[in-house]
Q: What sequence folds into this?
């Protein structure tokens, strides 16, 4: 893990210092050291979940885990300026569905840069038509804020996402 700490530190530094590249909901109340500590603590819970569900996942240097189920069109990938149209389900580590798109959505034309950091990282790994599963530590999701009545603070997200299209 010590090998990845500088990478995680730099990733979180960019999130804290460049809010235009992070989700709008980020409240900045978590220090960088605090975010790294939480990612390390949640890593144990995530690995327990992965083992219990017999998943094969890749760990991104940020601390997020992902599995590309279908790479999609590998000739073009999203950028942070892209507007994704996706189908998604977000659950927690207890397998409780927190929210879902129930069909495709482009979030009213919101650019990828305005989504949670875990999605910014993960959705750039597949092309149009791609499908992936992501397990996102809370500092790369909705952090200490959560989303009122939908996602509690400090929730690790398990996201199943299909990229329908992007502009």
A:
């Amino acid at each position: 893990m010590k090998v990845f700490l500088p990478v995680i530190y730099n990733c979180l530094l960019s999130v804290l210092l460049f809010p235009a590249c992070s989700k709008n909901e980020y409240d900045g109340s978590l220090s960088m050291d605090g975010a790294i500590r939480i990612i390390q603590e949640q890593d144990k819970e995530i690995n327990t979940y992965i083992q219990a569900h017999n998943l094969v996942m890749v760990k991104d240097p940020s601390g997020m885990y992902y599995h590309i189920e279908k790479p999609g069109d590998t000739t073009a990938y999203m950028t942070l300026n892209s507007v994704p149209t996706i189908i998604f389900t977000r659950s927690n580590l207890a397998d409780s569905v927190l929210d879902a798109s129930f069909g495709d959505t482009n979030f009213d034309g919101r650019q990828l840069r305005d989504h949670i950091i875990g999605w910014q990282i993960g959705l750039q790994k597949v092309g149009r038509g791609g499908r992936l599963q992501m397990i996102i530590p809370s500092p790369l999701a909705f952090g200490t804020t959560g989303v009122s009545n939908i996602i509690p603070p400090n929730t690790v997200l398990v996201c199943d996402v299909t990229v329908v299209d992007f502009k």
